Amino acid sequence: MVWGRGMRRTAIAAAAGVTFCAAAMDHALAQEATQTTTQEGTQATLPAVRVSAAAEGDGTVGLVARRSRTGTKTDTPIDEIPQTINVVTSAQIEETGATSINEALRYIPGFSSYGADVRSDWYSALRGFTPTVFVDGLQVPNTLNLSSWRVDPYMIDSITILRGPTSVLYGQGDPGAIVDVQSKLANGERIREVGMQLGNYARKQLQFDIGDTIDRDGTLSYRVLAVGRDGNSLTGPHAEQRFSIAPSVRWQPNASTSLTVAASYLQDWGDASNNFLPAEGTVLPNPNGRISENLYTGDPTYSYYRKKEWSVGYQFEHKFDPIWTFRQNTRWMHLSLDNGAVWGDGLDPSDPTEQTLARYAGLFQPNYSRFDIDNQAQARFGTGPVEHTVLLGFEYNRQNSTDSEWLAQGPSLNMYNPLYTPVSTAIFSGPDSFGQTNTRSTLDSFGLYAQDQIKWQRWMLTIGGREDWTDTKQDDVIGGTQQKQNDSAFTGRVGLTYLGDYGLSPYISYSTSFNPIIGVKMADGSLPAPTKGRQIEAGLRWQPAGKNLMLNAAIYQINQTNVLTPDPADPTGTFSVQTGEVRSRGIELSAVGNVTRNFSVIAAYVYQDVKNIRANDVTLDKWPVSIPLPRQMASLWADWTWHAGPLEGLGFGAGIRYQSGLAGAADNSLYVPSYTVYDAAVHYDMRHWRFAVNASNIFDRTFVSGCQSSSACFYGNPRTVIASARYNW
């Protein structure tokens, strides 16, 4: 494709952003989840585990979740949901030592990433597409990746990944998956916890989690979590700092009514820790040798990253009678960013020695505000031998955003003997400037949806449909132009699950999705239609009786149509046509839980084939490279903890993560080699204390995690070691 000046600006800006409770749990469920049957038929108590309390009755114990609201928006056992669901619990986050959501997803099938970055958790792929991100069932602001919404892992009760198209319940989005983060909220329990962390790169963190009832009757309860962190960036001279706080209050006057009001605030200070590097010196030979993984491509005096985000909302539920329940989830969110960045753009063509990196400089100041309200009416009733759970919903969201950007050609940098020429804001008014862009956008989205979960004996049929309308207005403040776009789409899902013997539950489903394409005009002046996704999936779950263990296997195929591809009738490459199609298909395997009383595992494997099966350019029959897409991935985390005897409370964990080679550059002309890294942990629990040391990439292997092009390759994360202590009373 030949890019015009505006498309080049967009690509440069996009590139800059890459581096980027149980208190009321049913007694029988808790007893089943915390006991296992021995060969002699006696009951052996499983190890004491921390119980999730994100959603009342969610059945989460330790590493295993048994119920989910995300899959159906109703409280449903996972083995009845006809799509693959992976749940990462707070116990798994703590056990594996994850310090970001990006790291928390390392041991689920098919998660691939360019590496952790202070600016983003979400530059990742699931089933070949970037997932849509939700917090507590409502979507976060749709932003540039360099300014994505983040949640500190200490604030998280669990992370649910619902795979495949999800528009039938959640509206617009790509067909790969949604990631729904469940927050730790007030639940009426007494909670007293403080903790600290120390690690390499000068990491220092303090945190606390305090909660209790407020009144004598326990109708009012509160919870406050907070994190403060200081440390150094993985590359460069700048610090990485964070402050985050998340208070919540719950009012529950009776068993039929509850209202939880929650707020959050997060502020990050730092700089980019990932660097855009040329293929020559990373995955290709360079006569000067390999580029150091510690090279900093920013500017010590100019580069900075300052982000603030806050939210406030509520979750309301009232049960009118044994049949009808009404729920309303509402939230207002705001994010602002001030980011000065300098990044690489491949080898400087004026230097034949291949030592010099061409660089761009940018100043990004986006702001996002988002309001969401989701109203749900649920009815549970029977018609003869058939049980129904009917869900009717109306959802509305509105997002306002402003995006001011200045871009310019920056000074080059010798990668093998770096001497940094100071960058200042004066560069944006000089001869190497691309000028300023300033856009204002408003998105209004309305959705009506209906779903029926029909259960007859051991069969569960889930069927649903949704109609969405989106209105978008985008103003070019500098150019004085305005673009409006209206889209609508119908999406659906139908799935059949059989609840068989021995804990086996096979299922098959068909689901669809849509995603509007914003800010693009076709050659005839028309606006593009939304992309459409469709998936067929078959799977098998196994929950062995008496075991706190869940295994999953799934096979799927996704086709996304209406994808933009260059207009063959336009020699300038300015316009596109919607004749592209992406196909993703694969196999996923996973296992999580306790194998024995002392031994637990988290295992995953994926084989995937993602390809542009229709296109008008060099990407035809090639793998997409905007996000890393290896053909195979495998991971295994195992933990052994003694729960009796002289070593009671002592445990060891070890993990291995493998990623096969993958394609780089749009025409797949680059090959990024495979890699394997190892993680480890040791922990000790005694009375009110927990001590742990977690290490990632323990052998400090240097590897390239992906290449978008010959000028944008990325090193994976180096070794990190974190010691932590937590005290409960």
From TrEMBL:
Alphabetically ordered keywords of this record: Cell outer membrane, Ion transport, Iron, Iron transport, Membrane, Receptor, Signal, TonB box, Transmembrane, Transmembrane beta strand, Transport
BP term (GO), one: siderophore transport
Domain TonB-dependent receptor-like beta-barrel: 251-698
Bilayer topology: Multi-pass membrane protein
Coiled-coil features, chain-numbered ranges: none
GO cellular component: cell outer membrane
GO molecular function, one term: siderophore uptake transmembrane transporter activity
Domain of life: Bacteria
Domain TonB-dependent receptor plug: 78-177
One Pfam family here: TonB_dep_Rec_b-barrel
Residues in the signal sequence: 1-30
Main location: membrane
Subcellular location: Cell outer membrane
Similarity comment: family membership: Belongs to the TonB-dependent receptor family.
Full protein name: TonB-dependent siderophore receptor
The organism's taxonomic lineage, starting at the top: Bacteria, Pseudomonadati, Pseudomonadota, Betaproteobacteria, Burkholderiales
